Amino acid sequence: MAIAAETAWLSIRELGRKLRGKEFSAVELAEFFLDRIERHGKTFNAVVTVTRELALRQAAAADRDLAAGVDRGPLHGIPYGAKDLLATAGIPTSWGAAPLKDQVLDEDATVVRRLREAGAVLAVKLSMVEIAGGLGYEQAHASFTGPGLNPWNREAWSGGSSSGPGSAIAAGIVPFAIGSETWGSIMTPAGYCGVSGLRPTYGRVSRHGAMALSWTMDKLGPLARTADDCGLVLAAIAGADPADPSASERPYRYPAPEPLRPPFRLATLKGATDRVQPEVRANFEAALEALKPHATFTEIELPELPFNTVASTLIACEMAAAFEGLAINEQIWEMTAPEDRLGLHSSLAIPAKDYINAQRIRRKIQQAMDALLAPFDALVGPTLSTVAGPIAVNFREYHQAWPGKSSGGAENSSGIPAISVPNGFGERGLPTGLKFVGRAFEENRLLAIAAKYQQLTDWRQRRPDGL
Predict the structure, then answer these.
(1) Domain limits for position 358
(2) DSSP-derived secondary structure letter, 105
(3) What is the mean predicted confidence (pLDDT) over 293-307?
(4) Does residue 102 belong to any structural domain of this protein?
(5) Which of 161, 248, 406, 407 is catalytic?
């Protein structure tokens, strides 16, 4: 059965309805997306490994289950991609690093297993920045698969470190993907590529079987077409895991038993639109105008704490502990980005007292951020201060004119959730993003607000030309 090209841009719920309505089978849907992966994935340097045989086996099992009256939920029969730091038994897991491109691990990551149990179909391992960016990369070429290219403009970056998931969703080659964030690695590709990306609370999702960059800051989460899609995926992957002591035992349900309803209590950060690109400011102001009938707004300021210094110290020290072996066995000299061959050595020289002090201050940051956000349903702001930069330009060079005022260091050192959704376009025809940030374990508040915004606007329905 021929599947319409429009199918590539449908939400998870829409795909599920068509699958259950027998407009196509799970195998046919898998073949449709596998063809798109093989046709477009390499174009954007988004693909590491196509898992065709596994996908068709899993899709056939999904069809058999549905025929027998066994429905595993909204992800049943839906193809997806996994960032290549998630272990997949018998399939290479490269961590984005050239010296590890043939690495094969013995078992599936917990997230991969839970998605299989939910009936989802693993179609592709997606590219990433080498070692998830922990070595200190400064340009888009820090991956052996090549720089992540933005489907809206192939001369622009798709964002890191989840570059493959960002490109894949924007190009319509999978309906959803799993990315990871330590500091910005879901929010950045979601914002740059004009898709929805959810960073869950630290501990909401088990990281067993995922490459560890920073044990106390890594989070796994979905990128997809809509906020609602992100909620459906989170419901499948969240929960306690004996294999990951940091995984929270707090139950998670989506949709929420008691959904949040307007008027939403939203905070804006003082100076949030200072030193951002004009289009970023205009799109943010238009987003607030769209939400105005459904929300109240209060301007707030971040407390005076060294958010970024704490976050960068924690990441550097934990990365050094995790990857010291790369220096010992000299694989570090095989990294793609020249600066990544040196970053580990400088991190290894950080004194233990700096790490201890960062952890002590982190507790104050968590308390301060929780108190700051307690009166509100979410903090809303531009996801990023600019659109995606040109592939050939160093990050600092591109951003120096538009440094913005980010709360990213505060959010990630606190471990609190956020979601980015598209809210328009800026220079060079590239997307901008709108970010909602909330208190720990309040993902459903963010999803409700983001979903309302997506009902009020049509940015989520836009797609790049030629795809």
Answers:
(1) 9-467
(2) -
(3) 97
(4) yes
(5) 161
Angle, nearest 10°, between helix axes 12-20 and 26-40? 140
Q: Choose among 63, 453, 81: nearest CA to 290.
A: 453
Helix, coil or strand: residue 360: helix
Please give the pLDDT value at position 273: 96
* Residues in the chain, total: 467
Long-range contacts formed by 54-57: CB under 8 A, 24+ apart = 54/91, 54/122, 55/30, 55/79, 55/121, 55/122, 55/123, 56/27, 56/30, 56/31
Q: Residue 1 pLDDT > 70, yes or no? A: no
| Mean per-residue pLDDT, 379-399 | 96
CA distance 259 to 449: 10
Closest C-alpha among 248, 250, 268 to residue 372:
268
Q: Say yes or no to pLDDT of 429 above 90.
A: yes
- Average pLDDT of the residues in 442-446: 98
Q: What is the pLDDT of residue 225?
A: 98
Would you say residue 341 has pLDDT above 90? yes
Catalytic-role residue among 83, 219, 435, 452 = 83
- The predicted-structure confidence for 194-213, as pLDDT tens digits, reads as follows 999 999 999 999 999 999 99
Question: Letter for the amino acid at 236?
Answer: A
The whole-angstrom separation of Cα 21 and Cα 56 is 20
Cα–Cα distance, 168 to 39 (Å, whole number): 12
Please check whether residue 173 lies inside any domain of the structure: yes
On the question of pLDDT at 134 being above 90, the answer is yes
Q: What is the CATH number of the domain that holds 40?
A: 3.90.1300.10
| Four-residue CA torsion sign, 59, 61, 65, 68 | positive
Q: Tell me if 223 sits within 8 A of 231, measured CB to CB.
A: no
Q: Is 65 inside any structural domain?
A: yes
Report the alpha-carbon distance of residue 290 to residue 456 in Å, rounded. 7
Per-residue three-class SS string for 251-306: CCCCCCCCCCCCCEEEEEECCCCCCCCHHHHHHHHHHHHHHHHHEEEEEECCCCCC
What is the tally of structural domains in the chain? 1
Q: In the annotation, is 83 catalytic?
A: yes
Q: What is the mean pLDDT of the chain?
A: 97
pLDDT band at residue 2, thresholds of 50, 70 and 90?
Answer: confident
Active site residue 167: no
For 157-169, b where at least 16 C-beta lie within 10 A, e where not — what string?
Answer: bbbbbbbbbbbbb
The verdict on residue 4 lying in a domain is: no
Q: Among residues 162, 185, 206, 347, which one is catalytic?
A: 185
pLDDT tens-digit series, residues 57-115: 999 999 999 999 999 999 999 999 999 999 999 999 999 999 999 999 999 999 999 99
